[in-house]
Write a structure and sequence with these properties.
- By secondary structure, the chain is of the alpha/beta class.
- It has one domain (about 5-180): Glutaredoxin, CATH 3.40.30.
- Helices cover about 40% and strands about 20% of the residues.
- It has helices at about 5-20, 40-50, 65-75, 80-90, 120-125, 155-165, 175-180, and strands at about 40, 55-60, 90-95, 100-105, 105-110, 110, 120, 135-140, 145-150.
- A hairpin with a 5-residue loop joins strand 8 (about 135-140) and strand 9 (about 145-150).
């Protein structure tokens, strides 16, 4: 037992280092080349929504979040996820620790320095003060919060959420009712 414990501890440290330090960082906002998902800034989504109203998916992340990077590299690279998002949503990347102000709806949201890292006021408001990364915030065309979904999502899991929101199921069913109906995989 004494020989196994150091090996397990070493492996745990190695996994943590790989997850948070050695992984290459993903660009915060993709240019949206052919086949890629176009990630908008908050301001771009607001402008686009004025021309063609759509729901908004806000991926609230931080640069140090290993699960955020993994979701960028896997879930948001899934072709089915990308296709559905492109058709039905404006996808927004929001760095919860960005220092730049965001002006929206007559309000200026700023970075708030507190604790070890601080957070941006818009992220705090969108997440109802429950700062957890990654978190997906689903907004309607009027930028009203439909639901907040914290945590890493596999492609199948996020597709359920996308259909729940994108197909307006949330207006007639609870999330639990919807999940029971899609247990077999059909939406």
């Amino acid at each position: 037992m004494k020989k196994v414990l150091p090996v397990v501890a070493f492996l745990l440290v190695a996994v943590l280092i790989y997850s948070f330090v050695l992984r290459p960082s993903q660009p915060a906002v993709s240019a949206g080349g052919e086949g890629d998902l176009k990630w908008h800034t908050w301001e771009e989504a607001v402008a686009a929504n004025k021309k063609e109203p759509r729901k908004i998916l806000v991926d609230v992340y931080t640069d140090w979040c290993g699960w955020c990077k993994r979701m960028d590299a896997t879930t948001f690279q899934d072709q089915t996820v990308m296709d559905y998002l492109k058709k039905n949503f404006y996808a927004v990347k929001l760095d919860a620790e960005q220092k730049e102000d965001i002006v929206f709806d007559g309000n200026t949201f700023k970075f708030q320095a507190y604790g070890r890292r601080g957070a941006h006021e818009l992220a705090i408001q969108l997440l109802n003060g429950r700062l957890s990364y990654p978190s997906i915030v689903y907004l309607n065309e009027k930028f009203e919060i439909i639901t907040v979904s914290p945590g890493y999502k596999m492609p199948d899991d996020i597709m359920k959420e996308l259909h729940f929101v994108g197909d307006n199921v949330y207006k007639t069913k609870t999330w639990d009712e919807f999940k029971q109906g899609v247990a077999g995989g059909s939406y």
